[in-house]
Every structure is written in structure tokens, then in C-alpha cells.
Amino acid sequence: MSYTEFDKLTDERMSLEKEMAALDMMSHREDISSREAQIENRLREIQARLDELKTASNNSA
Predict the structure, then answer these.
(1) 43: left (phi over 0), alpha (psi -120 to 50) or beta
(2) CA–CA separation, 39 vs 43, rounded Å?
(3) What does the pLDDT read at residue 33?
């Protein structure tokens, strides 16, 4: 099975979600709001693209 864009985006989303969890644990020690905002924006971009891919897949089926 090939490594598709969907797989790549899913992996990146999981990695970013783990980073957000780690940042939550560090938040009492340093200002992490800038990185959190970057991650949240990227997660929204990833989800939008995953939705597009799912829609395209459903339309071609």
C-alpha cells in the first residue's frame, strides 16, 4: 500500500496533536501561545484538506 497524501496529513495531524499536549504541560513555565496558534492553524488546514480528499474519494466511488 502506498503512502498517500491522506496518510501524510494524518501523520502530521497526530504529531501536531502530540506537540500541543506537550505544550499544554509546559504552559505554566513559558509563553507558548505563539506556537499553539501556529499548530492550531496548521491543524485547521490539515483537516480542511483531509475533508477535500474524503469528498473527492466519495465522488469518484
Answers:
(1) alpha
(2) 6
(3) 85
> What is Dmax (Cα atoms) for the chain?
50
Q: Where are the beta strands (DSSP E) in 1-61?
A: none
Distance CA 16, CA 32 (A): 14
Which candidate, 19, 9, 2, places its Cα nearest to that of 48?
A: 9
pTM of the model: 0.72
Q: Are 58 and 24 in contact (CB under 8 A)?
A: no
| φ, ψ (nearest 5 deg) of residue 47 | -65, -40
